[in-house]
Every structure is written in structure tokens, then in C-alpha cells.
């Protein structure tokens, strides 16, 4: 079963106020993924290449070139051969990976929440949100245990166990509980709620 949850609350006039919209933009900006790991890797590679080039240039300026980069061997390379093409293709792929990492948003560890003023941004950790959803789902009628809560950008999936032989209708209660939880927490991005009930053996 799939239902919708986390819709934006609106003012009495039917729309969010300008301050609330600015607060949402501030929260989205504050908690977006920074791509720290891949950014650090790119910075490390560029720094290493710059240091090697600087050593070669400075040593050549003082008349004792260290030849950290084997220029003479590079002159003998067949640039139309398969080795050169493979290396060039690999470098192009690495560049595309870094480019896509910079352009595409990553998965943040914090879920931004709706706010009322731009100077106060709020968020909840993904683990904390999953735990809150699991807690309310376990309190729903007919649920003995929540196996898994999966949080995706536009969907929350809850897999729960039930001792009830005929579990028809139980999914509605779990979905309502999760939807009410999301309405209280107010995540910035609305998510659909999907619930799957598993028969508990024994």
C-alpha cells in the first residue's frame, strides 16, 4: 500500500509566507551533501600533480633538473597506440566522475525540515527519522516488530511483521501512523509511504 505524507503546511491564505519559503531554501542549502570524500580526493590528486610539476620546474630553473616526470620517455611513446588511448580514456572517465559529483546532488545524512524564519534552520538525521518512523509503526495495531525502514528521496518503505493471519487492513493503520509522524516532523520534501506486512512465523 502507498499513501502520501509530509505535504507542506500552508497559511490561512493557502500559500506559505515569504519567510517560510526563505526558511525552506535556507534549510535545503544548509543540509545538502557537500561531497567531502570525492572533493578531498580531487584536491589531493591536483595537489600531488602540482607539487610534482613545481619540483621539476624549480629544479630546472636552478640547473639541476630532477626529472620527476620522465619527459624523454614520454617523447618516445606512441600516442596513437592502444596504451595511450587507454590511459587517455581512463583520465576522461575520472574527469567525468568528478564533474558529475560536482553537478549531481548527493545523499545528505541530515533531512531538512520546514521552518518559519530563514535564520533558524532545522534538520533530523536520517537514522533518527527512521527510528521515529519505526517506533510509531510498531505502536500500530497488529504490528509485532518492524523489520526495516528504508528512507528514499521521495518514498518511505516500512516492512513490518504481524502475528495476525489475515493482515488485510493492517497496512492502512501503519501507513496512517507513519503519515501522522511525518506530518509532525515536517520534512522538507514530501514522501509517499509504502507499507508491507509480513506474517510472523511461530
From TrEMBL:
Keyword Transmembrane helix on this protein? yes
Q: Which residues belong to any copy of the DUF6286 domain?
A: 93-197
**Keyword annotations from UniProtKB, A to Z:** Membrane, Transmembrane, Transmembrane helix
Give coiled-coil spans as residue ranges: none
Q: Where is the composition biased (Basic residues)?
A: 1-11
Query: Residue ranges of region Disordered?
Result: 1-26
InterPro entries found in the cross-reference section: DUF6286
Q: Which residues cross the membrane?
A: 38-62, 82-104
Q: Which domain of life is it from?
A: Bacteria
Spell out the Basic and acidic residues composition-biased ranges: 16-26
Q: Name one Pfam family in it.
A: DUF6286
| Protein name, UniProt field | DUF6286 domain-containing protein
Q: Which organism is it from?
A: Actinomadura nitritigenes
Amino acid at each position: 500500500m502507498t499513501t502520501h505524507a509530509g505535504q507542506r503546511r500552508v497559511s490561512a491564505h493557502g500559500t506559505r509566507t515569504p519567510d517560510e519559503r526563505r526558511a525552506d531554501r535556507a534549510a535545503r542549502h544548509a543540509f545538502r551533501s557537500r561531497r567531502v570524500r570525492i572533493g578531498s580526493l580531487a584536491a589531493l590528486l591536483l595537489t600531488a600533480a602540482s607539487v610534482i610539476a613545481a619540483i621539476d620546474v624549480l629544479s630546472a630553473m636552478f640547473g639541476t633538473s630532477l626529472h620527476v616526470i620522465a619527459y624523454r620517455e614520454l617523447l618516445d611513446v606512441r600516442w596513437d597506440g592502444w596504451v595511450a588511448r587507454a590511459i587517455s580514456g581512463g583520465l576522461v572517465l575520472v574527469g567525468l566522475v568528478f564533474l558529475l559529483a560536482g553537478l549531481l546532488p548527493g545523499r545528505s545524512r541530515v533531512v531538512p525540515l520546514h521552518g518559519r524564519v530563514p535564520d533558524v534552520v532545522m534538520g533530523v538525521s536520517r537514522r533518527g527519522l527512521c527510528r521515529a518512523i519505526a517506533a510509531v509503526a510498531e505502536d500500530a495495531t497488529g504490528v509485532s516488530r518492524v523489520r526495516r525502514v528504508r528512507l528514499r528521496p521521495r518514498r518511505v518503505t516500512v516492512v513490518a511483521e504481524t502475528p495476525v493471519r489475515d493482515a488485510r487492513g493492517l497496512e492502512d493503520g501503519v501507513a496512517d501512523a507513519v503519515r501522522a509522524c511525518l506530518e509532525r516532523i515536517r520534512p522538507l520534501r514530501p514522501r509517499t509511504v509504502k507499507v508491507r506486512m509480513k506474517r510472523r512465523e511461530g
